[in-house]
Please model this.
Amino acid sequence: MLIITAGRTGPNRALRFGGDPSLDDAGRRSVVALTLPDDVGILAVAPESAAAHTAELLGAGWVVDDELRTLDVGAWTGRLPEEIPPAELGAWFADPASTPHGGESVADFVARIHTWRTRASATACVVSMPTAQALLVDDAAQFFVVEVRPATIYQR
Model:
């Protein structure tokens, strides 16, 4: 499976949680610099605008797949880590089943993305960074161990 992370957006440059921002100038430039293999078919694309814009810039055929949507961080959406109570943030990082933000747990998110991955087999996809992390790990306990970068191609 070819996993392509969406280009950089304002919030991931500022380390904000969630949202659906557009690519910034650096994000657009880094996506345009990517080279897809010649045999890439139709891309499965997450519904976030940065993923769709990334697919457009790559010039390949693509279709939005809602199952690739990013992790729902509930009440934390748009907030900086320093705006989150430290105990809540600590619980979230320590326990993949926790939901101090009221959204989706990391465990449920990784399970949802893995279900998609088993059906997709060798599909290429364009996704947000959290979704790429979920695609690259074997289980939710590894989620925060994997580091992904914007506008990067990973092979799984």
